[in-house]
Every structure is written in C-alpha cells, then in structure tokens.
Design a protein that fits this description.
Elements (H helix, E strand, L loop, with lengths): L10 E3 L7 H9 L20 H35 L12 H11 L1 H27 L1 E2 H9 L3 H10 L5 H22 L1 E4 L5 E8 L15 E2 L2 E2 L4 H16 L21 H5 L20 E2 L3 H6 L12 E2 L13 E16 L3 E4 L13 E5 L14 E11 L6 E25 L2 E9 L5 H4 E2 L7 H17 L4 H6 L10 H7 L3 H27 L6 H7 L1 E2 L2 E10 L3 E4 L1 H27 L30 H7 L3 E7 L9 E8 L15 E3 L1
Antiparallel strand pairs: 1-21, 2-19, 3-18, 4-8, 4-17, 5-6, 7-14, 9-13, 9-17, 10-13, 11-12, 12-13, 13-14, 13-15, 16-17, 19-20, 20-21
Length: about 675
C-alpha cells in the first residue's frame, strides 16, 4: 500500500465487528485506512527523516554543550576572583582582563540565560508530555505540560484547569529557577564599594565643641605636637568653597556634598518657609507623621540654594579591624546625627552718612560686622538673644581712584541656632542628606535656641573680624553680590533705599546667603581643629562625649572598592545550570525513547467534534482550555498503531476516567476506542 499522509481522524472500535454510523461516515472518507488489531504493549519510536533527525541531534547537543559552558563559566568566575582579590581601593584598575570580561559577559546574561533556559525547559516539558501520554495521563495534566512555557503561563494554566497537583508545584519550582538563575549570573561577581556593612561608632563635633575662635580654646596635645588654629588657612578654604557653590555649571552629582565628600546640611527653616519667588519647578517637601522631611532630592535643594552651609560637618568613624584610630576618609552606609546650625535674620537696612561708618574700619572695607549687646528677647530657657550690625558702604567709580560715597547703610541682625536631626547616606560619590527634622520631631519654635557661640564675646570678635577680611578681599563673594544690586550715593534717601529693598522677596535670599556665610565659616573652624585632634573613641564610646564630640552609630563600612564574589548567588547559579544540564540530558533521552518529539500537540484539540464525548452541541466554539477543563479527569494513552504495511499512524485511546469528578458524563467514551 502506498504511503499517504492523513489529516482526518477516524474512530475505530477495537473489540466490535460492527461499526457505528459515525465509523461508517468516517470510513467513507478514509477507505484505505485499516484499523489496528490490538493496542501496542510498548511504544515504537517513529523514525523521522534524516534532515529532521540531524537537526534534532544538533539541538540536543547544543543544549547539553551550552549547559556545560555555563557551569564552566562559574569556575572561571571563582578563578578570576582568587586571582584579582589582591587589588582594591586605588589599585582596582590593576585587575586582569579576565575579570573585566566576565563582568561584561555577566551583565548580558539576564537575556542570554532567559533564552537558554526557556529553550531547554520548554523542550523537556513538551517531550515529557509525550512520554506521559504513552504511559497514560489525564488530559488536564497533558494540557498543562504543553502550555507551560514560562512561570506566568504555568500559573495561568493552574488556575484555568484547577490543576492543583504535585506536577503543578514541580513546574512552578522549575520555572522559578529561570528568574533566580538569570539574576544569579549577573550578581555572582561584581564591583562593590566596601566590605559588608556593620555597626560602627561615629564621632561628630557637637554644640559643645570649642571653636578655635573662642578664648576657651586650648591647644590639645596630639601625636604630631600641639593643635594649631590658623584662620588664614580657613579663609582660603572658605573662598574656594564659595566659588564652588557659586558655580552653576558643576555636575549635578555633586549637589548635596562638598569637595571632601561630606554631606551638606540643608536649611530646614528655609525649605519649609520659602520666599514667594521660588524657583520654577521647585516642589515644597512634605512632612511625615514623625516630622521627617525628605531632603534626598538634591536638585530641588540646590535649586533653592537651601543649604545652611557650603561645607559639611566632618564625621569620624572608628573601625578597630581596619584602623587603630579615628578615620575621616570616604565611607559608605548611613547614620543619623543630632546637630545644629546658625540662623541669621536681619531687619530692613537703615541709611546712614559716611561719618556714621565705624571708625575702626579700614578704608578698604566695604562691609563690616559689629557685635552689639544682648537684646531683651529670650528663648524658652531664658537665654538672651544676641544681635550684630552689618554695615555696608558703596564705592563711587566716578574718579580714577575709586573712593567711597558719603552714604552707608546699617542692618540689625540677630543670630540663633536651630537644633535638628539629619539622616546621612553615603555612597561612592560622597555623603548626602536623606531625611531631616527638627530635634525630636518638634516645631521650629521649640527647636530654636538663642544659645550660640556668639555668647562668648571673644568668639564674636575673632569670628566676625576674620569674616570681615574675607568679604573685603573677595569681591566675588556671594554676600557682595547682593550688595552690588543696591545703589546708594550722596543723594540717596531712606525712601530710595526702601524702594530698592522689596520686602521678603529680597530679604529672605539675602539672609540665606548671610546664614550660609556664618555656618560655613564656623564649620570650617571646627573641621580645621578636628582634623588635628580627632575624638578618643575609647572615651567617646564609654561616656558618649569627648572634647565636644557626640557619638552616633553608623551602619556602613570604609570605602574600599573591589571585585567581590557572592557565594549564595554562585550556588544559585550552579544549581540553575545543573538543572539545565539535567534537563538537556533528559530531553535527549526522551527524544530517543518516545514516539516522536514533534508530533504531539495540545490534547484538547483531539477532542473536538468527537461523537464519543458528551460535550455541548456547540463544543467546537469552546477553547482548548475549556474542553480540557471539562475532560480534566479523562485519562488517555497514545501509541503507534500502524499496520505492518502502513507506518506513521498514531492511535489515542481512553484508559479510564473518574466520572464523578468530571463536569460532563463521558460514559460513551469506550475503553476500546482508538483515534487514528
């Protein structure tokens, strides 16, 4: 008999000599199809064409080889890590090309692993479905195996078929390794900024830290001698910090941190009570129920110039496993510190004659600070508010040699301190403020104190005198930029000056610049001394205070970039690759020992228009999942039922069924019926 390909399905009763009307109708269309005499005891693999067989061999060999290569890659990662583990910190660029190549390769493995995993596992699952069908399996189980090509599709089939079984759990478990394996290959070997985080003590200059401007400061003995306080060095650093802060072209990544990588302290009062003319695009930060304010959006804070200083308060970390003493270098991690910053507010300027300008001011000073006596105002603790005068006079460019006009102006300013808590987060680019609130979540009024370093007259004299020097000699200072906008001469009246001072919209930014100048100069004085005399952590951890330092705890580590291996991810990657290797080998075995790996489609499609299955009359409109759900407890079996002269005929028969659990009666589906 000639070989033919049949696309119709014939139902044949294997035990009866008579055919039903349906069989006769089917046989009229397939006269040359002979019924099988009996169901085969063992499946007979169908031999595919040579080209197809070669392609299948290549596919199976490729799946096995890829799995072995992925396992070999893990061994290379371990070798590269051992080879380059000696390079870290400033020598990180000395690692071998193997390490950099593996890092680059692993970065692409999320996509590559997905393709390999889906190909191998889906091939295995489909071939396993054919293997189960040869032994006898429920339609719902076979339908689930055929449709399980990813974790989402597996979950969808479990719910649609109500297939809550061990097979479902196994499929979910296998497909989970698709996500775990793809992540493991990317995370197993990477460049990290430090060793593992741990809790370490940190010392920060607090409100009781004695400034070098104060008469109470006494040089401390250090390993290099006595601490030395040099205002000239502070002035130079201040000028540099002012230029950096005024540079609008600096990279955004530097917002919120100074040139040493220390976090800048935002001006919380200014952020919550901004002037009316805020920058376009600025969004006022919200306050949570604990009083914390998100200040992590550094572009927003920079947009409003809402930092209290141009430099940060230098922290000191102590890690006894790394250093014998305090460490002030770059760190990574996070900590919360209690601190305070100076708040400066001024009244509207008053016009004065040239002769009113303080006589002790040198002729080359345009602006000077003159401390006054205490005012009558006091805070909640009875502390008296301190005030100072800010004098300014304009230069007249009318002559070849610039001279001062006969007018000057005076601003009465008050200085206080605001107690705050701030959460600092540090990374490889520096430390940045993340969240901030008034101390203990209180209000501005409660957090404001009139106790400041200016209560010490010697501090006020030295501090303001040196700050005057900076303003006088640095014409690009931001403080001078505001005065340049005011024009006063011999004819200027108080009304003219008031007209040039447009209320809060001008005064608030001016006060912000003045406040930033005071805090920057004060913090620079602290940092200048603290770098010479760091805290004694044995005393600091025992008492909580040492030389004005306050103790806090950081969860972090010293910045030390290096390439690190992560053993949990290595183990996960190995297990995932091992699963792929086992799956590839099993898939190859199933191809060799089953009927034909490319012949089996969705079983539910074989039940369409079947007269032996009691389904609704319009069952042809039902989807495969709906039919499989109705027949989920029907057990079927397939095999090669070819006659000796007719190869390539596959039969499908019902083995048994649980009628009570099916959604339709299936008595008419006989155990001796075969679909050919």
């Amino acid at each position: 008999m000639e070989d033919k390909h049949y696309t119709t399905v014939q139902l044949t009763d294997l035990s009866s000599q008579r055919e039903s009307e349906q069989d006769l109708v089917a046989n009229e269309n397939t006269q040359d199809v002979l019924p099988t005499k009996s169901w085969p005891q063992e499946p007979v693999p169908l031999v595919p064409e040579k080209t197809v067989s070669l392609m299948q061999n290549a596919l199976d060999a490729g799946m096995v080889i890829l799995s072995l290569l992925l396992i070999a890659k893990i061994a290379l990662v371990i070798y590269a890590w051992k080879k380059d583990s000696i390079w870290s910190g400033g020598y990180i660029d000395l690692v071998s090309g193997l390490t950099t190549s593996l890092i680059e390769f692993n970065s692409q493995m999320v996509t590559a692993f997905t393709i390999v995993f889906v190909t191998i596992i889906s091939t295995l699952v489909k071939r396993y479905a054919l293997f189960k069908a040869e032994k006898g399996a429920y339609i719902s189980d076979l339908e689930q195996l055929q449709g399980s090509v990813s974790l989402p599709s597996t979950f969808k089939l479990i719910w649609s078929l109500r297939a809550f079984s061990t097979q479902s759990v196994a499929l979910v478990g296998i497909w989970c390794f698709y996500y775990l394996g793809s992540q493991a290959s990317q995370r197993e070997y990477a460049l990290v900024t430090s060793n593992s985080y741990k809790k370490v003590p940190v010392g920060i200059p607090g409100p009781d830290y004695v400034s070098g401007f104060s008469s109470r400061w006494v040089p401390a003995s250090t390993h290099a001698g006595l601490t030395v306080f040099k205002p000239d060095q502070i002035n130079l650093v201040y000028t540099y910090a002012d230029l950096v802060d005024y540079d609008y072209n600096r990279p955004e990544s530097s917002y919120g941190t100074d040139s040493n990588g220390v976090a800048l302290l935002p001006d919380l009062k200014y952020l919550l009570n901004p002037p009316l003319n805020v920058a376009v695009g600025w969004i006022k930060p919200g306050v949570n129920r604990h009083g914390w304010i998100d200040v992590s959006k550094q572009s927003q804070t920079q947009m409003q110039k809402a930092y209290s200083a141009m430099v940060g308060i230098q922290p000191y970390m102590y890690d006894k496993n790394a250093f014998d003493s305090a460490y002030s270098g770059k760190v990574v991690g996070k900590y919360t510190m209690r601190t305070s910053y100076l708040d400066v507010g001024c009244e509207a300027p008053q016009l004065h004659r040239y002769t009113d300008f303080p006589l002790n001011a040198s002729s080359n000073y345009q602006s000077i600070f003159n401390m006054t006596t205490s005012s009558t105002a006091t805070d909640a603790n009875g502390q008296v508010l301190r005030q100072f005068y800010l004098w300014h006079r304009s230069m007249s460019p009318a002559t070849e040699y610039a001279s001062y006009t006969e007018s000057s102006m005076q601003l009465l300013c008050k200085v206080s301190s605001i107690n705050v808590e701030v959460e600092i987060r540090c990374k490889d680019t520096g430390c940045f403020p993340h969240a901030m609130r008034y101390f203990n979540g209180t209000s501005l009024e409660t957090a404001t104190s009139y106790s400041t370093p200016f209560d010490d007259d010697s501090f006020a004299t030295n501090f303001l005198g040196n700050l005057t020097e900076i303003v006088a000699h640095d014409k690009t200072n931001q403080l001078n930029q505001y005065f340049e906008g005011l024009s006063i001469d011999n004819t200027t009246t108080q009304d003219d000056l008031n007209a040039q001072w447009p209320g809060a919209n001008w005064q608030a930014p001016f006060e912000q610049v003045l406040k930033k100048a005071f805090n920057t100069y004060y913090i620079l004085g602290q940092n200048h001394l603290s770098r010479q005399s760091a805290p004694d952590f044995s005393l600091l951890t025992a008492t909580g205070s040492d030389k004005g330092y306050l103790l806090t705890i950081m969860k972090g580590a010293i910045y030390n970039p290096h390439y690190a291996i992560f053993w949990p991810w290595i183990a996960m990657d190995f297990v995932s690759c091992l699963i792929l290797l086992v799956a590839a080998i099993l898939s190859t075995w199933l191809r060799i020992n089953t009927l034909a790996p490319d012949i089996f489609g969705y079983v539910s499609s074989l039940t369409r228009d079947n007269p032996n299955i009691d389904l609704p009359n319009n069952e042809t409109t039902l989807g495969g999942i709906e039919r499989a759900l109705m027949l989920k407890r029907v057990k079927i079996k397939i095999g090669d039922v070819s006659a000796p002269a007719e190869p390539n005929r596959v039969g499908l028969a019902r083995v048994d069924s649980e009628v009570g659990r099916s959604r339709r009666h299936i008595e008419e589906l006989k155990s001796t019926a075969a679909y050919v």
